[in-house]
Amino acid sequence: MGKHFLLLLLGLSLVVGFVQALTCMKCSWVNPAGICEKGKTTCVAKDGEQCDRLIVSTGRDMLFGQQDCSSRCLNNTFIHYNIKLDFLCCHDKNLCNTI
Ligand SMILES: *[C@@H]1O[C@H](CO)[C@@H](O)[C@H](O)[C@H]1NC(C)=O
């Protein structure tokens, strides 16, 4: 007990912290071909954050997409007339919000 226990706890927290680190794609403008045209980078999700992805489309045609790390992401699709907003939120693997 004592020192060893503390070391064990420290080790465990490092392992857990490492396992939880999640890298997401970040882009403020993904064009219809799926290519990031503006602000391409990656972000590391902080506590409570996940990777989010939004695809805006009309009918079958994608207009643009966005990717980020977010603590308030949604898994939802909203349709307004023929504009579709498709929100996705994921944390199952790194870069899971790739478009
Ligand atoms: C969204 O769906 C994913 C995959 O099913 C799930 O892991 C995640 O927790 C959900 N996020 C929210 C905010 O509902």
From TrEMBL:
It comes from Mesocricetus auratus. Keywords: Signal. Residues 20-97 form the UPAR/Ly6 domain. Residues 1-21 form the signal peptide. InterPro entries: LY6_UPA_recep-like (IPR016054). It comes from the Eukaryota. This is Secreted seminal-vesicle Ly-6 protein 1-like. Pfam families: UPAR_LY6.
